[in-house]
């Protein structure tokens, strides 16, 4: 043996370097030293009691040497399979929060997530969302406000002057009712166009906001080129389906009203018809509530978009209906509370202003402000809830959250949200078809 390579005692003399294991020592048990020649084996180490699991939220007690750096699992964690969104070369804490690059977490949403995401949609881009909503609400409110002011003037004259000519007051009230009906019809026609355009633009803004990107109203408008006919087609078909029973009910009301039926029986029939019609209208609203997002984000035609909405709602109808009803009630309540002072003051000015031109103008302006503020709040919330519920249903039924998470990781790596993120909404990108 060369100098400097002296074998330790107990090792085989014929074993060339690297040296073999001592002949008298088998594999040692954990915590036990190998025995040397001429020595008694060391007594076995006492058993180590198992370490009880630590309560959730507390650090576990030390239980031996630490694993190499970068390989320590979180306490109580199970390894994620390769390809899972949590698999990034190691482990992911099972209670870690979901990714949230934009207005919602990229996982199936709760009612709180949907409402919070709708508020964050407004806060993330207030200039575009609130500005467009205010313009739309103003266009819808002006005809109704003018017609109401024209009706309040004669009614106020009758209250303040009981000696006024009854025939003149009756003619003024009749003309006011006619103008009110005309204003309501004009408001509906304007709202049909304006609200449809607004919903399409807000849905396009929402599609980018989910990834944390911002888009101006002009950019959203340009991205919707060619989608307007399909969008109006969806709204038109939904309107026809909603009012279809009225084609039978309204003539029936006139026939029964002229047949000499008592007022109590007639009111009872109307109440029964309303009870039957309300569930039908809610069914149509719920089943086709995702048609607009399908037109805007998936670029589908009107009939195909309605079929797509029917498919997504299937299996979760009652939950979608409940969230839509809660949203409508909350948005209506908040908008009414904020716009009520303007409406009340405008009503009193119109009724007590002596039917003068100035009082009618002030009344119309105040009623317009009240209606506009209410619509400015309710329109984006309802559009946001519809779009986010559509996103939630795709995540639950198509594993679309995996697609969103993968895209968000890539966008974080690049440091910005590319316009190609809009293409991810196409159904061909779903993880499950």
TrEMBL record:
Listed InterPro entries: GlyceroP-diester-Pdiesterase_M
Ranges annotated as biased composition (Low complexity): 21-39, 66-97
UniProt superkingdom: Bacteria
Lineage summary: Bacteria, Bacillati, Actinomycetota, Actinomycetes, Streptosporangiales
Taxonomic source organism: Nonomuraea soli
Name of the protein in its database record: MFS family permease
Keywords: Membrane, Transmembrane, Transmembrane helix
Record domain Glycerophosphoryl diester phosphodiesterase membrane: where: 272-391
Stretches for region Disordered: 1-99
Bilayer-crossing regions: 128-151, 185-207, 228-254, 266-296, 317-340, 360-390
Keyword Transmembrane: yes
Pro residues composition bias: residue spans: 40-65
